[in-house]
Each structure stands twice: as C-alpha cells, then as structure tokens.
Amino acid sequence: MGFNPCCCLTLRTGAIIIGILEIIVSSIGILTAIVGGLGWSSMSENDTRVMFEEMKKKDPELRDYSVDTIMSILAVALVILLVWSLIHLFMGSALIHGIKRQRPSFLKVWMIYEGCEIVAVTLLYIFMISTNLFPDLFTILLTCLLQIYFIYVVYRLHVEMREQSSHLPKPRYERT
Q1: pTM, whole model, 2 decimals?
Q2: 9: CB partners within 8 A, 6+ apart
Q3: Alpha helix (H) ranges present in the chain?
Q4: pLDDT per residue as tens digits for the range 91-105
Q5: Domain coverage including residue 56
Q6: Residue 41 lies in a domain
C-alpha cells in the first residue's frame, strides 16, 4: 500500500474529515457574511462615522479614503466572503458525496478547484505585495501548505478508488 498521509486513519476517513472541515469553515463564513451584512445595513450614518474614525486611529493609511469608499469596500468584501463560502460548502458536499458513492470524478473536481484556489491566493498575495499591502505571510503560507496537503490526501484516495474500480467488471451496455 505504501505511505499513508493520514497517519492512523484510512485515506477515506481522512478525506471525509477534510470535507467536513470544509463544510464547517464555509458555514462559519456564510454566517459571518450574513451577520456582517445585517450589521452593516443597520448602521446609522453617525455609527458609520464613529466606526470610521476609530479605524483611522488604528490604521493611518485610511485617512485618504472617504466613509463611502470604505463602506463600499466592506460590502464587496462581505459579498465575496458569502460567494466563496457558498462555493466551498458545495465543494465540501461534493467531496463527501464522491467519497460515499465511490465517484472519483467528484474528487477530481474538488482537487481542480482547490488547485485553482491556491493559484488565485498566490496571485492575490503577489498583487497585495505590489500595492504595499502586506498581509500576514505566515498565515497565507500555512493555509496554502495545508491546502496542498489536503489535495494530496484526496488525490491518494482518488488513485485508490480508481484502482479498486478497475478490478470490477465493466458493465456491458446493449445497443438498441
């Protein structure tokens, strides 16, 4: 069998745990976006100005921006969080469904999406550095490494599922 990347667990169990974690994190993201959107929409103009003044004290670079610009950026960020979380909820569900129903193609779709997301995060990070916005490098690096590990675990399960299905007789379809 070779090296098992999931320590004491089977690949199947490890991949299911990855799917469950993805569903949990995406659910938290959906709740955060909804609560943030409700909070944002219920703020009065005075509350917005007070919050903006507090933000300026903590981050002097915000002095160049108006309240409307910051609130628009906040609204766009909440929408992006909601869409990202919904996609991850769907992908986590597809991963678990693919594992339970022995459908390697569902695992392949999940791996392709996660790979594209790693590329997108890397490009976003490069853009942020070029515009003098310095995000937490350690957190982004750790997240990308964890995603690569998750892809590796799911890939190993994908290969295992393909090998198991190749031993089964292929169904013969009658031509009508």
Answers
A1: 0.80
A2: 17
A3: 11-41, 45-58, 67-100, 104-130, 137-166
A4: 999 999 999 999 999
A5: 11-163
A6: yes
